[in-house]
Amino acid sequence: MKRVLVADDEEVLRMLISDTLEDLGLHIEEAEDGEEALKKMSTNDYDLLILDYMMPKLTGPEVLDQLSPQIKREVPILMLTAKAQKSEEMEVYEAGATFFMAKPFSPSDLATIVEDIMNG
Predict the structure, then answer these.
(1) How many CB atoms lie within 10 A of CB 48?
(2) CA-based angle 79:65:94, to the nearest 5?
(3) What gap in Å lies between CA 22 and CA 59, rounded to an integer?
(4) Spatial separation of the C-alpha atoms in residues 46 and 28, rounded to whole Å
(5) Contact 50, 5 (CB under 8 A)
(6) What is the set of domains in the chain, with CATH numbers?
(7) Which of 54, 6, 11 is nearest to 28 (CA)?
(8) pTM of the model
(9) Rounded CA gap, 81 and 51, in Å?
(10) For residue 93, what is the enclosing H or E element?
């Protein structure tokens, strides 16, 4: 079973993402901030990372800065953000994210993107 780490400080959004992705047959683990996400990534292997841009302790881009180049090459990273300006999108890609999705988003759009990532 493919494993996904969802890191977002909004519990309701984590639950929505988790429920949506579990319906796709994925195993979901959650982190409520960037620090917790890094800890989980240091001890577990994931097939996809979903990071919120704005989180306490460490932001999504700060998490990406601390990931090894190998993880960034091997694991797709989807960054979610309410900051949908072109400059933030470019920053996300420069930090190492593979995909970018603006909030708010529909669960069906998220499911479509994740299915494409996992089957791509």
Answers:
(1) 21
(2) 60
(3) 25
(4) 9
(5) yes
(6) 3-113 (3.40.50.2300)
(7) 6
(8) 0.95
(9) 9
(10) helix 86-95
